[in-house]
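Lab notes, practical 5.
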Amino acid sequence: MVLWLVFFIKERRSETEMIKNDVIIEAENLRKLFPVMRGLFSKGEDSFVHAVDEISFKIHRGETFGLVGESGCGKSTTGMLLLHLLNRTSGKIFFKENEITRISKNMRKDIQMIFQNPYDSLSPRFSVLNIIAEPLRLMKILQDEREIEKRVIEELEDVGLVPAEDFLNRFPHELSGGQRQRVGVARSFVLDPEFIVADEPVSMLDVSVRVGILKMMKELAQKRGTAFLFITHDLALARVMCDRLAVMYLGRIVEQGPTEELIQHPLHPYTQALIAGVPKPDPDAKRTEELPIIGEVPSGIHIPKGCRFNPRCPYATDECSEIDPILEQAGDKHFVACIRYKKIKNIE
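Output from the prediction step:
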């Protein structure tokens, strides 16, 4: 998979070209705690899983903002909070600078999602025409069925399912995985949303079709000026798709910055470990670095004291178990939550 990324990455637009001044979505001290059920005879205080723990970020018009990290770090929960598919515990969410407590019917048109599994996200009882047309009918964007069909054909052509007329009356079981996901993308774009959450949109697909899906999504986003929250555990994909990255660990953002800056100059030990784990495109290259972390991700219930990464960090000192670091600016638009990053990277 890495080999095709080497070619595809050349088509990424620069951060300054992509990012606009308009903020589409903003999270401010966003938090989500899930209560843990206690046994009948258990005693003590109530426990909670700290899925998302006071994170803040902004996504601009036309920008693709990536959330990366290991499974269980809170990426998907963040996306569901922004879509109001989950109720937040605390914090604020702003859509175009207006704080929102719920997604109104009119707002739902502008905020959409591309799901991870194209085999579960499409109704087997609906034809392709009805799958893509359903949002238009529910939102009453178009009333005339001929206009609806014309719009669906345009979307099918935009996602590369041509000739579009051949797909209108097909059902999901008659499509390949890649074709199903293209239908899912068409459904998300049919309302011309301003913001889309894409949660691991190609992880369920064969490697051979991923590049086509990603390229199509990127072209659509650029054509329509759509902002994306791109959720992935794969840093190679994030590098291709995203203008800025936020690295999450145990519910917190530990590093954030422009994609190439963060990839080329990672400051947090966890980010360094993720990058070290990305396979090299040269099959003859020998890996000289070892993953600089040990053990498993701690429980989201019993959060380590101080820095959440300190039990696995090879650079941790006693101070790291006492101080809970916050994101601080370490460069132009580059932020890191680590009290020792300067010593680790030999930064004066």
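Observations recorded by the TA: The radius of gyration is 21 Å. The domain at 2-35+46-110+193-344 is CATH 3.40.50.300 (Rossmann fold).
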